[in-house]
Design goal:
Distance between the termini: 49 Å
Structural class: alpha+beta
Low-confidence stretches: 1-6, 10-15
Mean pLDDT: 87
Length: 138
């Protein structure tokens, strides 16, 4: 179905598939940028009024605040990201992944579910759901 609630034509399906593939590739590259600590690339993926919300924490609102958050991670050891499943539909991306990070000399493994809302090829909203227990000392 298209946004008007009618059946999609074959051309609409092809266009939706191409757009979904493009968004899928953008989010995968976004995570590769996190692995290599590429602050400029990461921030370029967001709209000016984007919201990044690690659900257990307060939301980070606006590109400048997101840049500040991302830059704080630049001196930390690179993290690895393994995306297990990712689906894209109508400008929404959902992924299930595992992040591997080193925090205070200890490897931390965090299963995460992420939701992205994409607007004109940029991330408008990014929400992440995870258990903060992974960050507690053993």
């Amino acid at each position: 179905m298209n946004p008007q609630g009618t059946a999609r034509s074959s051309g609409e399906w092809a266009m939706a598939s191409t757009l979904d593939d493009s968004i899928d590739a953008m989010i995968r590259e976004f995570f590769r940028a996190w692995e290599r600590r590429d602050t400029d690339y990461i921030v370029s993926c967001f709209t000016d009024d984007a919201v990044y919300h690690n659900i257990p924490m307060e939301p980070i609102v606006g590109k400048a605040a997101i840049r500040e958050f991302v830059a704080r991670h630049a001196s930390r050891p690179p993290r690895r990201v393994r995306i297990h499943h990712q689906v894209v539909s109508g400008g929404v991306v959902m992924n299930e992944r595992t992040d591997y990070a080193t925090i205070n000399g200890r490897e931390v493994v965090v299963p995460i579910c992420g939701i992205f809302e994409i607007d004109d090829g940029r991330i408008k909203a990014w929400r992440e759901y995870f258990d903060t227990g992974a960050f507690r000392p053993a």
